[in-house]
Amino acid sequence: MDDLSFERQLTDCADMMYRIAISLLKNTADCEDALQESALKAWQSRHTLKDDRRFHPWLARIVVNESYAILRHRKRRLPLDAVPEPASAPPDPTLALALSRLPEKARLLLLLHYAEGMDYDDLQQVFSLPKATLRARVHRAKEMLRKELI
Amino acid sequence: MRHDPWDMPDLRRAFGPMPETCRSKLLDKIQECKKEEQEMIKPRKVFRPLLVAAVLVLLLSTVAVAASQGGLKLFMDFWYGDRIHLPDAAQNVLEGAQAYTWTVGPLTFTVEEALWDGQTVYVSTRVTAADGQKAIFWHDDDYVPDHPVQKYECEIMGLPIGTTYEQVVAQATVPCYRVMANLAVDEQFGVSDGMAGSLRNEDGSLYIVNAWALSNAGDAANLTGHMELQVWEIQPDQPWQTVTENQLQPEVSFPIRNTVTEADYIPTAPALAEGFTVTAIHAKQTCTGTYLTVTCTAEEGLAKDSAGKVYDISFCDEAGVKFPWSIGTMLCSNYNDEAWPVVVLETAVGLDALPEAITVEGVVFHRQMTRE
After folding, report:
1. Chain A residues lying within 8 Å of B150, measured CB to CB
2. Average pLDDT over every residue of A41-69
């Protein structure tokens, strides 16, 4: 993929990147940091993308990892009284609340599979886990969300 | 993955629009990257190695119900209700399992149940305070201080829905702990997949359930390994900084008691379902239910990326009533489409014994025992 195409793909994926980061970090400030770091990481390592068709999971993995890195750092430094700027209001607040109650890993799997349309090959690339494992976990996460929405 | 009649809502509606400031900063960063590279300026940021999310072993979540029976059955009942059937044979194994008890720091861990069906092992461990006093426990994988506690736990503790873990810790008048009880099966058994979760009880105790799929149990008489037990006490003023203070890795051994019967099921007519012809069903009865290996052939014109439709095939009794789920295969079906247009589905149903017949779309498959 040439640089221009790569830049266009990266730009087109901004919304996906945002949804991944905000689902893990839950505030806009950290989300901005995660996206900028992800963009930097993606640009610097774009030569590692061997198959253009795998751009989405490749990028998703970078965003997930950068978000986790920020989450871990935040856990160490966040003052107890800190009140991060919340994300913008969702169209379906009930669904948003139910999703937010799930463990972050379950939430992330559902987001990538159902909202971002990633199949199990894609998820395998993101999480480095066997497909059978991912199927089981997506299934479990879906069940958890269903229970939250009952 | 099993077919589930519940339709997943559009999850994008759970997210507000990307703030324009966020978008513009991202786009600016992309331009900055290009510019820096063109100017041969060394990037300011230091490359960090990718943090592989390999800790996704534990996925199930903490739930809360009243404890009056074994943890594993409670756990399954809570999540799946009557959609799952646990055979009497499984109950017998659970009730006969050897109980182990250890004290780790201020807490007591008791392995109350172990269930092994030849492919999957389930272990249920109960955590209580060693001194009998009240305490709050959370499964290690659930505890993230600024995340909301499961609503079931809120209901038990009388807290508003949405209360975070650190808010619970701040309000608690009893000690709070993160706990882990994980069965590490010896390597020779070939662990291929695993899940775990927890179940909060009204009496304050916590069940932790481990499930591991094993590929190489062979003819071993006992399943051996060790428990990984850890306790972290959470300090109200430092909810993010829990330190491992107490841990134990005792060896455990569970007898393998698994009587298996097997049968082939022969169709009385072509069984057409979901774009496939089901040509053969092989069934294996275990203590957790009936494992099915289903061979299907795609109808002409069906694309290979439609292979997943085999998950939607229903397996019913002779009256056409769909079989309940089994906990076998850890509630997960799989298919193999390498020999397309032939697809082999591996699934499990919750039956006490091999049925005399299985029906698919009204076509009866009759049993021929192959191993009794």
Report:
1. 101
2. 85
Distance CA B221, CA B284 (A): 20
Partner-chain contact A132 B12, CB within 8 Å: no
| Residue carrying structure tokens 């109808």 | B299
ipTM surpasses cut 0.90: no
What residues form DSSP beta bridges with B47?
A: none
- Span B44-72, mean pLDDT? 33
Q: What is the pLDDT of residues B107-116, one digit of tens each?
A: 999 988 888 8
CB–CB contact A96 B80 (8 Å): no
The whole-model pTM stands at 0.58
The answer to whether residues B364 and B319 touch, using CB atoms and an 8 Å cutoff, is: no
d(CA B279, CA A140): 30
Average pLDDT over residues A81-95: 69
| Spatial separation of the C-alpha atoms in residues B135 and B106, rounded to whole Å | 10
Q: How far is A102 from chain B (nearest CA, A)?
A: 8
CB contact under 8 A, B18 and A15: yes
Q: For the sheet containing B62-65, what is the strand order?
A: B62-65, B191-201, B206-214, B120-129, B107-116, B100-104
Instruction: State whether B11 and A95 contact (CB < 8 Å).
Output: yes
Cα–Cα separations (whole angstroms), residue B330 to A110, B43, B84, B115, B116? 19, 47, 12, 12, 12
Q: Contacts by B163-168 with C-beta closer than 8 Å and gap 24+? A: B165/B138, B165/B239, B166/A80, B166/B239, B168/B136
Q: Say which amino acid occupies B232.
A: W
Q: Which of A7, A105, A138 lies at the smallest CB-CB distance from B1?
A: A138
Give the one of B11, B12, B43 whose C-beta lies nearest to A44's C-beta. B43
